[in-house]
Design goal:
- By secondary structure, this protein is of the alpha/beta class.
- It folds into two domains: 231 residues, Ribonuclease Z/Hydroxyacylglutathione hydrolase-like (Metallo-beta-lactamase, Chain A); 164 residues, Rossmann fold, CATH 3.40.50.
- It contains twelve helices and 18 strands.
- The radius of gyration is 22 Å and the shape is globular.
- The termini are close together.
């Protein structure tokens, strides 16, 4: 068999991996670079020319893992969970990118194997900051490869990692994300510990604005727990309100809880009569109408950088004791849109707290996956410091982009 990291041995995000057996050849993930620059590198047989791949498998719904899905040739099957597709399309319908995926996809389901020629591919659910994320096990020629996708063990579903890895068992080759390899080797805080940090930092504020990823469902639970501890009302923006209708109903949302408000940002309000947006707005109209009163009390609400004008307007009317909790990867702060937003918050005399828990594996998770699966080779990717994997194993195989590993 052969493993080739087409892109991702020296960067985080915008990654794709090729895995080949005697009869089959597949790709895992096909995403945009994190810097937001749209790069249209063509790959022969995948995006241009005659189809040469038997399938593309998407691990989760983040842009840096599936953002280039529409560039794939129509005759190459794409496997993506229906839920991940719906979440992706819902979120990006409200963005400049638009979100409608143009191509057909085949539903990828937890622990339901897909056979392609001599290859068996099985997805396993794993804890990550994107809901319904998968690790993928590839079996062919008597060999077993585990592609971790993005994973961790410190979210609310962190215990899944150990049980999933034990279910998978011994493997031959581990292809692991290494996002945190370039950072200090420390144990990550848990989402539960993040709750206490946010409560402590924001207890003197009446209004808390959480700048966070709309697809980070664990962080939604964290918001609810903070609200419960501080006596604040939870308000979800219209995008998050729609995303929560797609995922588990165990999480309180605007339609299953009378205590949660829905905020309609100005950028969406002006499009409310557009047929494309009506289906997202109408189910929440009653809640939207009532949320105006909630804004005059104590609340915690998720926000996005596109809501800058909303915050400026609300600052003059209701945000009299407000703070922003920046709860995302710090690297985004280098982007102009985030820098502009945070600078404006400072100008408005709004306190900013950086309180976040990574969606990626820390050193305990790396140790866990290596100890349980006992791979003969460990290939790091999705990293800016691949050499650091040698701190965890003597089985490290360090590749460059497009370099093949045969076994």
């Amino acid at each position: 068999m052969q493993v080739k990291i087409l892109k991702g041995t020296n960067q985080i995000g915008g990654v794709f991996t090729e895995i080949s057996s005697k009869e089959a050849k597949i790709i895992i993930d096909f995403g945009d670079d994190l810097d937001g620059v749209k790069r249209l590198e063509n790959i022969e047989g995948l995006t241009t020319g005659k189809p040469a791949y038997d399938g593309v498998f998407i691990t989760h719904n983040h842009q840096d893992h599936m953002g280039r899905i529409d560039d794939i040739l129509d005759d190459v099957p794409v496997y993506l969970s229906d839920l991940s597709r719906k979440i992706f399309e819902t979120v990006f319908c409200f963005s400049k990118n638009k979100g409608k995926i143009q191509r057909k996809t085949i539903n990828l389901e937890e622990e339901k194997p897909i056979t392609i020629k001599d290859m068996k591919i099985t997805p396993y659910i794993v804890d990550h900051s994107a809901y319904n994320s998968f690790m993928i096990l590839i079996e062919a020629e008597g060999k077993r490869i585990l592609h971790t996708g993005d994973f961790r063990n410190h979210g609310y579903k962190g215990g899944l990692l150990e049980s999933t890895l034990k279910k998978i068992g011994k493997i031959d080759v581990l292809i692991t994300e290494g996002t945190t390899l370039s950072r200090e080797q420390v144990k990550s805080k848990t989402e539960t510990e993040l709750v206490d940090d946010i409560v402590e930092k924001t207890k003197k504020h009446d209004q808390v604005l959480m700048l966070m990823s709309t697809t980070n469902i664990d962080r939604v639970t964290t918001i609810q727990k903070v609200a419960n501890k501080t006596g604040k009302t939870v308000i979800h923006d219209i995008v998050l309100s729609n995303v929560l209708q797609l995922v588990t109903q165990k999480i309180p949302n605007a339609l299953n809880s009378k205590n949660i408000g829905v905020y309609l940002p100005d950028s969406v309000f002006i499009k409310r009569d557009n047929e494309e947006y009506k289906k997202y707005i109408e189910p929440f109209q009653e809640k939207i109408n009532k949320t105006g009163k909630l804004l005059h009390g104590k609340f915690i609400m998720n926000i996005r950088v596109s809501m800058l004008k909303d915050i400026e307007r609300l600052k003059d009317k209701v945000l009299n004791n407000c703070c922003v909790v920046y709860s995302m990867w710090e690297g985004y702060q280098k982007e102009e849109i985030y820098k502009k937003f945070l600078d404006r918050m400072k100008e408005l005399n709004i306190d900013i707290y950086n309180l976040h828990v990574s969606g990626h594996a820390d050193y305990t998770a790396f140790n866990q996956v290596i100890e349980i699966t006992k791979p003969n080779a460990v290939i790091p990717m999705h990293t800016e410091n691949k050499e650091k994997i040698k701190d965890f194993t003597d089985k490290a195989v360090i590749l460059e982009d497009m370099e093949a590993f045969n076994f």
